Amino acid sequence: MDIFLVEAMVNGLLLGGVFALLALGLNLIFGVIDVVWIAYTELMMAGMYAMFWLYARYHWPFLAAAAAAIAVVAVLGLLTHFLIIGPILDAPPINQLLATGGLLFFLQSFATLLFSTEFRNIGVRLPTLEVAGMFISVARLLAFGVSLIGVGCLYAFLKRTYWGVAIRAIAQDRQIIGLMGIDQRRVYGITSAIGGALAGLAGCLLVLQYDVHPFIGLSFGPILFMICVLGGLGNMLGGLAAAFIVSEIIAVGGFYVSIDLSYVLAFVVFIGLMFWRPRGVFTR
Amino acid sequence: MLELAKVSAGYGAFRALFDIDMSVRAGEAVGVIGPNGAGKTTLMRVISGLIRPRSGSITFDGQSIGGRRAHQVVAAGIAHVPENRRLFPRLSVEENLKIGAFVPAARAQLATRLASMYELFPPLKERRNQLAGTLSGGEQQMCAIARALMSGPKLLLMDEPSAGLAPVVVDQVFDLVQRIRTEGFTVLIVEQNVQGVLDVVDRAYLLEVGTIKLTGAAAELREHQFVRQAYLGM
Amino acid sequence: MRRNLVVWLVVIAGLAAVPFLGMPVYLLHIAVQILLWGTVYTAWALMGRFGMMSLGHGGFLGIGAYVPALLWNYYGITPWIGIPLGVALAVLVAVAIGFPCFHLRVVGHYFALVTLALSEVTERGIVAARDITGGSLGLTPNTVSGTSLFALQFPDKRHFFVIALVVWLVGLWVWHMIDGSMTRLSMTASVEQDAAAAVGINVPREKLKILLVSAALTSLGGSMLGQYLMYVNPGTLSGVMVTLQMLFAAVVGGMYTALGPTMGSALTIILMESLRILFGTRFIGAANTIYGILLIVFTIFMPVGIWGFVVRCWERRAAAQRARETGATSAQGAGASAR
């Protein structure tokens, strides 16, 4: 097999890791609270800017900056829920989509106001490894590795801790959760914070590979939504699988045709798959 | 232990309960019977905090709990076994039980409580790692009751425990209620199965169209002409 | 009925005459854009008002903008043919997406995200085909000197104002038609799709009808915008951002009334221009920041939008007036319980 094709496939796999992280966050929020945060990748952008600000401008150590950036986006997640989603929790889905659409506008434009539309790079140059004739970026490997760790941690949290079980329970029956002595609002808050934190983590990982600008959310958002819908909205395992599959389609497609065309291809495949299995290809 | 005074409640513009007066003393088993749509489930929900009362007061152990949110009512010592069981289907039996013990006071006792539940309900122990959604109707009811007991309540509310179960299983459920009673729990049961429930409770209320029509000792109600005609088919 | 028609014609003639009475070119420019974008937002609101949140209208807009422009530039085909072809393509795409969606009960979040894919594909497709479309740099229709009916090019903005007015009125007429038809009743009933089906309403077909009309009108709006601006660009006339713009205008203006979206259009354009005049290029992004906040605030506190709110106030006042006229007590009782 052509070594460059294998390289493309490997890169697809590595990219899939970060999408898996993002898909997990989005699915968590949808599965528990039943809303789709259209502005999810804009939250990720906020994390990227936080990293840029703290690391490149104020020269914080990398890990400290990352921790702070993740915390910032976790707080943004909390605010999103309590200020925006909370008041319209029982409204029809269109209202929730409209509101998070508004958040998207706001975050993008606010970032433009603060940072202008220039592309910003945090100036971290990680090496490229040569493995068996393929060139693999360390940044990508790192992102993949950390994403997997993140996924693993979330899994452990959901399975082993009390709040984790509470989150899984509320996704299955939100009305009677109060009867277990669990404050619904607190569970929603924790879920929103975790969702935000995952987006923040993804941002920290992507900022090593991409320049940040106010519209970077749009480069990842629609694909992320596509991944989540394919996997079944709220289905975390489905989202994981879909993340890797879609990333592979884009990577391999990009190898044979232009990258833009590979996105078009991915979307066309997506629409086709949606009509074969409307609830998500991996839904039971 | 539990006092309802002039409690009214409803859903939106629809009123389901009108000026309900009711009481449950510690150690008692009290039943609430009545037809479909009488407001029995609404009554349970207003006590456990799933809905807020429009007017009136609800006191438990001297504290006013009317208007408190559900998780606070659980902390105060009332557990509600909802209509149709409402187990978490994709959690295991054991996870369902653990979730029932979420309140910090109960969580501290988790191991002991779990052990005593498994003693009280051996079939649950056998199926502890099975997904709750795959249990039979009777087992689900058992699990739902155990889950509620995990919070260590002083008062147990049961909403139509026999609903949707086969006759043989219904008997088992009422036996369960008896056993819970002998363990010392105070119980308030809402039921459509008048025959079954009057056998296990001390007193009962008859609720029709949102108001209390009759009340008295179970034995009395069983002999009451109206009850016999309308509900016991005699 | 006859009287109403006459009143309408007089109003329309009056509006059409306004620019000829001497209006600064700049204001005319604003007015044309308000009307054309108003048509596009009205088209979106045709679906939004029934709870069908489409994020794919950026696709229909892009199709409408590019098809006539490409056909004109490469084959010299007049926009009189190009525009209907654009509409036809938009409708085709709408059927391809809508038919399976509605029959498979892809609704709510799923529908929004599936249609999002359409906006995204259209924009990326236009960019990918950069050899034909000019990619992100956009495309300029070949200019014909002077006014040309054949090329549908009118350097005199007053002429275009009339055209924009006509297009806008077509949009309003479509809204009115849907209001009057069974489709509207079916759509309101479609909140409970099963119940509606039980009384014989073919919900998927009604939804599809609205989608097709909406797509067609959006495409028309896109075509006219392209012809007016004499420049099409995938970022401004297709994609996710312009779709969100539609959302914003429709919600803030009011998507449950005919004039609401146009109001939203006026609002956004005037806001944008005011900011540009006041701050020049210093606060790029300020407009959208405000849009974002307003969209959130309106969705939470005033989902019927500004115009919808105004209309409601009028209606309430009219009802109170009627009550006063027919006799206080009985009407008041009715009014109290209706609340």
Draw up the topology in text:
The complex is a heterotrimer of chains A (284), B (234) and C (339).
Chain A: H1 3-33, H2 40-57, H3 62-85, H4 93-115, E1 128-131, E2 134-137, H5 138-160, H6 162-172, H7 184-206, H8 216-231, H9 236-256, H10 259-276
Antiparallel strand pairs in A: 1-2
Chain B: E1 2-11, E2 14-24, E3 29-33, H1 40-48, E4 55-60, E5 63-64, H2 70-76, E6 78-81, H3 93-100, H4 104-108, H5 110-120, H6 122-126, H7 137-149, E7 155-159, H8 167-182, E8 186-191, H9 194-200, E9 203-208, E10 211-217, H10 218-223, H11 225-231
Parallel strand pairs in B: 3-8, 3-9, 6-7, 7-8
Antiparallel strand pairs in B: 1-2, 1-4, 4-5, 9-10
Helix pairs in contact in B: 3-7, 7-8
Chain C: H1 2-17, H2 25-48, H3 57-75, H4 79-103, H5 108-128, H6 130-133, H7 157-180, H8 182-189, H9 193-198, H10 203-229, H11 234-237, H12 240-253, H13 260-279, H14 286-301, H15 305-326, H16 328-338
Helix pairs in contact in C: 2-7, 2-10, 2-12, 2-13, 3-4, 3-5, 3-10, 4-10, 7-10, 12-13, 12-14, 12-15, 13-15
Quaternary state of this entry equals heterotrimer
Instruction: Using the alpha-carbon principal axes, give the shape of chain C.
Output: globular
Largest sheet composition of chain C: none
Helical residue percent band of chain B: 40-55%
Query: What structural class do you assign from the helix and strand content of chain B?
Result: alpha/beta
Spatial extent as radius of gyration of chain B: 17 Å
Uncertain stretches of chain B: none
Secondary-structure element string of chain B:
EEEHEEHEHHHHHEHEHEEHH
Which parts of chain C are unreliable, with pLDDT below 50 for 5 consecutive residues or more?
A: 331-339
Estimate the strand proportion of chain C.
under 5%
Number of helices of chain C: 16
